[in-house]
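Format notes (please read before filing issues)

Several people have asked whether sequences and structure tokens are stored in separate files. They are not. Every record keeps both together, in the order shown below: the sequence lines, then the token lines. Line labels are part of the format and must not be stripped during preprocessing.
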Amino acid sequence: QVQVEESGGGSVQAGGSLRLSCAISGSRFCASDMSWYRQAPGKEREFVSFISSDGVTTYADSVTGRFTISQDNAKNTVYLQMNSLKPEDTAIYYCNSRRCQNYWGQGTQVTVAS
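Then the structure lines:
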């Protein structure tokens, strides 16, 4: 059984930083080509960032230059370093594998106060 577990969220002031982690267990195949998404209250879930199995990254325009995605293949874990956080970054953050899109975790809450 594939399990996805996000962690690292919290409450910070605007301008602060957080580092999110996402661990995938149950399948090494699924633990590649990973994306981060977020969903703010009353809004649709939106794409944040992606990292391919060979390290190619993409970002949403709204986070480019502030967020950095990375991965540790040995640990089946992907990270999202978030710097210069803004109140509009407040959301629940989820990770998802493009190879196994049916599996989602509970997400991790990020709250940025102005």
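For reference, the curators noted about this record: The chain has no helices and ten strands. Residues 8 and 112 are 14 Å apart (CA to CA).
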